């Protein structure tokens, strides 16, 4: 095995195959071995030649290092399955727990952490995704309006691509941008896999294989597709594979993909996956994105689909743009018409409704409970929970829970039901998702569900039918927050507000393959031209596309300037000119939408930006308690932490979070003029019970790129707000630009 691992550098990219073979040949060893990532910090290299030279040098250094722990370099060569050699310095290896512990004590090591699995941030299961082998063309394409972005390269870390997809048509595109250094892995012959639109494909599966074992066959990069920005170039980095125990994308592979993507020359990385909130340096996404941002690559991540629970947001590092999901003003109504002439509006993308005028009996799923199922299982229409003798020929009402929505319809159909009503629970409220159900079905709100249940309980013979779905546009209110969208506060660093922004992520239409049915389930032999999907994995690529457009318009902007422009120009009003709501139709907060809903046309001209450079992030790490020795390993260049590190609240972030206001705190921010000369004045919307003073109250900019500092003083007016967060905003304006920052504050008791 050692000889396989010690291959010539030219065959580097054959490694996955060789590794697969080597893993198949390998006898199962001590069961105690698990895979770990050992992280040392960063590298810098000058030229392309330096990269190639350093590959062997760094790999060898990793073998030497691990060899000193395991007793021989050969053992180290067997154990290490990735050496990160481009920008990220570290390796992934199979180790016993004691070995990992010992390594973590070495002073050159920043962190050692298990090769943790992450989930894709889609609400659809892999069963759906795995078969859905076609492109997603976002129909509300904000990108298609602008002909920008042709020289921008957007990398996607996810399930890979299906190159034949319509999304990757290359018509009208010039040759690859000159900075591109990536490859098309597995290309049978030059030019056969990629084209001028899809300029790169790589895949990373060694971390997955080492975690789940060789039982699952891991194919190549050709898989499901994700819509990109139509005019930008796409590069695919496949790191997600069929889930095992709920995990599908592993840290070791994620780091390898980041390391490759930075080298390849991408401008933006779109990352629609994540785990639970995790310390930054024990998390592949946080580490990988740190190095990407340090090297000028903007990283956009999904916030997760674990909402609406507080503190559920993932991908919370301050160098990431974290995206929540909200609705659009388009709906797919399908009505339930009841025998009492009442009608209930739901949402559906079922291919058809009932023929009409023929009424079917309506029952609660619990009324059709199988003898061996529990009441709860039947309520949620879990698999095999319904009795065909009771459900046959009826429309069955299922309650929303955590099992897949479309699967509930299949359970009803298997039990002989002729229709399904999916009724929200209280937590999901008005969040209705149009799914391609396998039978006439519609998804109704919590309040409509309550009314329907009372009708079923009171009517002698409840009956109704479901109409075919239609398409409505201009629906109101829109946008509102999806219940599934993960929410703040940021549990890792509450001083940084997360998510940062929200974008459309509910019932996003996508072109669909003729190769499988819209649910992707094996029994589904229907064929459709489009399908709808929901999740923060659908909202994240919208923001990645916008970041790409901004990069094309303003090549000199840093990732943080791009992020600031996107955040400070967002809106928090819906199309009723009311504050954006959550799915209970109550006022949503910055913990769900961050700065607000993205407005790409405004983001092009933000007026002022809150910028941050690599050193600011290093200072942030000092504030988190890392010392100069540890920081030096990230920065590569010499770096000394200030003797008194800045407050976390002073990080020059475009939003402000004060998680522990005891009495009074003063924070600072710096804005840079990227618009025209002019004078900005401040307006404050104070959080309830908190006094907010900004000094100075006006900022005069004589030229472009001028920077000005200001202070914000927060004073608690009331002492005991019972630990509740309160919300406000600071808005700088020159009359033309509006630079808005949300404020979140939690007041605590004064220290005695
Ligand atoms: C999945 O979880 C089960 C039960 O916890 C465990 O026995 C099994 O080894 C796990 N499989 C993998 C590949 O981790
Ligand atoms: C009930 O019994 C059927 C038939 O034996 C079985 O297939 C099904 O899984 C059982 N359902 C539950 C919920 O245990
Ligand atoms: C909506 O906001 C209200 C008020 O803040 C809150 O009580 C409710 O739980 C929220 N609903 C969701 C689904 O987030
Ligand atoms: C920095 O922290 C590491 C790990 O705690 C410690 O080993 C090292 O001595 C510290 N260095 C300085 C300069 O304090």
UniProtKB/TrEMBL annotation:
The UniProt record lists the keyword Cell membrane: no
Extent of the signal sequence: 1-31
Domain of life: Eukaryota
Entries under SUPFAM superfamilies matching the protein: PA domain (SSF52025), Subtilisin-like (SSF52743)
Transmembrane feature ranges: none
Gene3D superfamilies: 2.60.40.2310, 3.50.30.30, Peptidase S8 propeptide/proteinase inhibitor I9, Peptidase S8/S53 domain
Keywords for this protein: Glycoprotein, Hydrolase, Protease, Serine protease, Signal
GO biological process, one term: proteolysis
Domain (Subtilisin-like protease fibronectin type-III) ranges: 650-745
PROSITE patterns per record: SUBTILASE, SUBTILASE_SER
Entry GO MF terms: serine-type endopeptidase activity
InterPro entries found in the cross-reference section: PA_dom_sf, PA_domain, Peptidase_S8/S53_dom, Peptidase_S8/S53_dom_sf, Peptidase_S8_Ser-AS, Peptidase_S8_subtilisin-rel, Peptidases_S8_3, S8pro/Inhibitor_I9
Domain Peptidase S8/S53, chain residue ranges per copy: 218-582
Domain (PA) ranges: 379-452
All copies of domain Inhibitor I9, residue ranges: 35-121
Family: Belongs to the peptidase S8 family.
Listed name of the protein: Subtilisin-like protease SBT5.3
